[in-house]
Amino acid sequence: MVSEVKLCGVSLKNPVIPASGTFGFGTEMAGWYDLNQLGAISLKGTTLEPRFGNECPRIAECPEGLINSVGLQNPGIKAVLGEKIPALRKIYSGPVIANISGFSVEEYASCCAAAGACEDVDIIEVNISCPNVHGGGMAFGSNPEAAAEVTSAVKAVCPGKPVFVKLSPNVTDIAAIARACADAGADGLTLINTVLGMRIDLKTRRPVVAARYGGFSGRAILPIALRMVNQAAHACPGLPIMGCGGVSCADDVLEMMMAGATAVQVGAENLRDPMACSRIIAELPAAAAKYGIDDLNSIVGII
Amino acid sequence: MKQACYTIESNLPLAPGVYRMCLVGDTSAITAGGQFVDVAIGGFFLRRPIAVQKWDSRSMHIVYKVVGKGTEVMSRMTPGQSLDVLTGLGNGFDAGACKASALIVSGGLGASPVFSLAKSLVEAGRKVEVIMGFNSAADVILADEFKALGASVDVVTMDGSCGLKGLVTDAMPSDGYDYFYTCGPKVMMKAVCAKASAPGEASLEERMGCGCGICYGCTCHTASGPKRVCADGPVFKKEEIIW
Fold first, then answer.
1. Which comes out higher in pLDDT, residue B117 or A140?
2. Tell me, what DSSP letter sits at residue A192?
3. Is the Cβ of A68 closer than 8 Å to some Cβ of chain B?
4. From the CA of A118, how many Å to the nearest CA of chain B?
5. Which residues contact A131 (CB under 8 A, 6 or more apart)?
């Protein structure tokens, strides 16, 4: 079975990628399995300056998923490029995806420029969809003009590096946002980020997460993710997509690829099962054989 | 850190709403008292982080309180059932930090994670004094087991129905120990750290996502920056903790 896929010339030995925010900076996972099994790794969302993120509680369990309101905790781009990626490179030689967030177009551009200049970064993933920060993230992913503005600003400062824009599901017309990013020069898209949600503690009569709302992810969002990946794939023919949202097994990977994804990110499943990506990669050949697939590339976007 | 399958050997109440489960399986990843395990429960997306009370090469005991639907399901599990558990999580207590005499102060269920610490300290020849706080006599757990280790034990209850009436801080000696350890409600640990006359450490608790350091869902502020309670802790030195 051919499992190798390519994202804008970057070769992945298989399509499985741990999603940003569910795998730390990779080194945190080194004790569980050999990371070189992975197709690629998307690093934790990074901003220009270090961020503590939101106060705790940041986690609320939900049926078939969870809400998180981490709020982009990260040590800042300088530490990520100077410490986190070199540490990861000691144990992992595959493609690295730098996930970048910001609070202004200028911040996105300067952070992406720094990441793009790092030879150990293979793909830039521009997160315009974080629901857990005010005045940034999702604000840019909620309207086509703002999404296009960020995309073109990042493309201008990242010559030679594929730029994927990570989209929010919290929009009315995903196709319009996807097209706006494509028209602004995006080399690819990642979708979906988490779905804005809420849980309430009946005992305290307060929201469970301190930030009130958070991003819902996990198995429950797979149908939403499949629908949106499919809409984006139809809106932007030929544009590679990393499909993300609710993937928990090899069958889900195949569904996501048929919906239009060239590669597939696994997110919340890592939090309940640290072996998730390794398990899914191991399951893939048998799952593909079961459905008569001898080359994963042959099913991308067939729906 | 390790993921493995365990068989429930027993699951018995210790006090109203508090249970002790004995799990048989690979305990090789557990290296220090104060570490925890993360238990997968069918029908619930996230695992339940629970401290290890004691372990040997064959099995481990975890003590838990029914606080929600997940732990309620756990309380009805029966011997012979198997559980998917991540073990050896967190740093645990630093038993080596105490050179001669240790003071251990626990509140409620906090008695469980300090049990193996007390055992290690006694085995290392340290003098161990344990002050255990509970709401009332019915809630007292593990006191006899601490005594059986050879530790000196003082039980304190809020209503005076067992031992001294009052707070654990009322029973804390002004000196006579070179290091302290505490685990219990946050307000209690804060008061213990404020009153302690020696250096020491406390085991923090936070709502967790992964339990193994990848999601940053349980980050706390510390004197040396943001730390993950699950992976950098749960045990932090007194001077590190920002209450």
1. B117
2. -
3. yes
4. 23
5. A137, A138, A168, A170, A193, A194, A196, A213, A214, A215
pLDDT band at B62, cuts 50/70/90? very high
Q: Which CATH number does B205-243 carry?
A: 2.10.240.10
According to the model, what pLDDT value does residue A135 have? Answer: 65
Q: Where do the domains of chain A lie, and which CATH numbers do they carry?
A: 5-54+73-195+218-299 (3.20.20.70)
Q: What is the pLDDT of residues A154-199, one digit of tens each?
A: 999 999 999 999 999 999 999 999 999 999 999 999 999 999 999 9
For residues A96 and A41, the answer to whether their CB atoms sit within 8 Å is yes
The answer, yes or no, to whether residue A136 has pLDDT greater than 70, is no
Contact partners, residue A284, CB within 8 Å, separation at least 6: A1, A3, A14, A16, A250, A253, A296
In chain B, CATH 2.40.30.10 covers 2-89
Of the residues A130, A181, A236, A244, only one is catalytic, namely A130
Q: Given this structure, which CATH class describes domain B2-89?
A: mainly beta
Known active-site residue A130: yes
Q: Does A106 touch chain B (CB under 8 A)?
A: no
Contacts with A218 from chain B: Cβ below 8 Å:
45
- Averaged pLDDT for residues A27-39: 96
Q: Provide the ipTM.
A: 0.94
> How large is the greatest C-alpha to C-alpha distance in chain A, in angstroms?
54
Distance between CA atoms of residues B66 and A91, nearest Å: 41
Within 8 A of B213 by CB-CB distance, chain A residues are 24, 28
pLDDT at A139: 80
Q: For a pLDDT cut of 70, what percent of chain A falls above it? A: 99
Enter the pTM of the model: 0.95
Q: How far apart are CA B112 and CA B33, in angstroms?
A: 9
Q: What dihedral angle (degrees, nearest 10) is formed by the CA atoms of B94, B99, B100, B104?
A: -20
The secondary element (H helix, E strand) that includes residue A116 is: helix A105-116
Mean pLDDT of A48-71: 97
User: What is the spatial distance between Cα A136 and Cα A110, in angstroms, rounded to a whole number?
Assistant: 15
Residues in A touching B217 (Cβ below 8 Å): 56, 58-59, 68, 70, 271
Q: Which residue type is seen at B97? A: A
Residue B217: φ, ψ to 5°: -85, -10
CB contact under 8 A, B45 and A218: yes
Q: Which residues of B sit within 8 Å Cβ distance of A?
A: 1, 3, 40, 44-47, 70, 86, 206-210, 212-221, 226, 231
Contacts of A272 in chain B (CB under 8 A): 40, 45-47, 210
What is the CATH topology of the domain spanning B95-203?
Answer: Rossmann fold (3.40.50)
